[in-house]
Amino acid sequence: MKASTQAEKADRLRQLHTDPKILILPNAWDVASARILEELGYPAIATTSAGVAFSLGFKDGQHISRKEMLEVVSRIAAAVRVPVTADMEAGHGVSAADMAETAKAVVEAGAVGMNLEDVLGSTEDSLVDLNLQCEKIGAIREASRAAGVPLVLNARTDIYLMAIGPAETRFERTVERLTAYRDAGADCLFAPGLADGETIGKLVKALAAPLNILTGGCPPLGELEKLGVARASTGSGVMNATLGLVRRIGKELMERGTYSALQEGAISFSELNGLFPHHE
């Protein structure tokens, strides 16, 4: 993809975060899921790091390599016409220099956006130092700009998701971190694990910047939009639901010998086949 075309897609994705209508992103994990979502009319595609990792046989949480993650992102970006934003976990590295390399690799893969987490593991002591995280954000901004495609950066804090610190301090600490990420150059701010509508509304006002909320347990999309949320994503939720269907199909075949779960709501072979170009 030409850098100019990619840059235009980055501009389009950035604009979607400032529209009055909430940006809804059911995260994809492969080309087929991305194409189905594109055909439904979604204006952008976000990948799920957990979904990609699971599909390739890895646990979630920094276990898949940058190269393997971006091979999937590259396939998706080449297959769809809409902007693609890549979930790159904690950036596949620990330093600002590592983030610069990741940003360049994301641009080379054809994506125009990137998610960045602020934890390196599954425990609260893996929370990255605030100043270092801001340096990482700055490095991503600078490196992607130099590559000709200023990435739309969605900077995430896991304070609510991982229940880091006393409950009564989480809102203030989330505001502190996300405000710093905004000032360091992030385009959108992500607080997964936050589900209470009143608190979400307070966070929108405190940040004065586009806010991303993870669906599941939170208010419906229409209410999130009224609260001022700019972006809602499903994380691995769509893949989780899909794999739940796989289990129900397998269980029905094994226990009852019938096919209702296999047939209900299925997309036809011909329709799926038509989503992909013909290659000689």
What does this protein look like?
- The radius of gyration is 19 Å and the shape is globular.
- The chain is 49% helix and 10% strand.
- The chain has an 8-stranded parallel sheet with strand order 1-8-7-6-5-4-3-2.
- The two termini are 21 Å apart.
- It contains 12 helices and 8 strands.
- It has 280 residues and is of the alpha/beta class.
- It has one domain: Alpha-Beta Barrel (TIM Barrel), CATH 3.20.20.
- Helix 4 runs parallel beside helix 5, helix 6 runs parallel beside helix 7 and helix 7 runs parallel beside helix 8.
- 44% of the residues are buried.
- The model has no long low-confidence stretch (mean pLDDT 96).
The structure class reads alpha/beta
Oligomer category: single chain
- What name goes with the CATH superfamily? Phosphoenolpyruvate-binding domains
* CATH class identity: Alpha Beta
Q: If you average the pLDDT, what whole number results?
A: 96
Lateral arrangement of strands in the main beta sheet: 1-8-7-6-5-4-3-2
By CATH, the topology is TIM Barrel
Basic shape: globular
What's the main sheet like? Answer: 8 strands, parallel
Work out the count of structural domains.
1
Tell me how many strands there are. Answer: 8
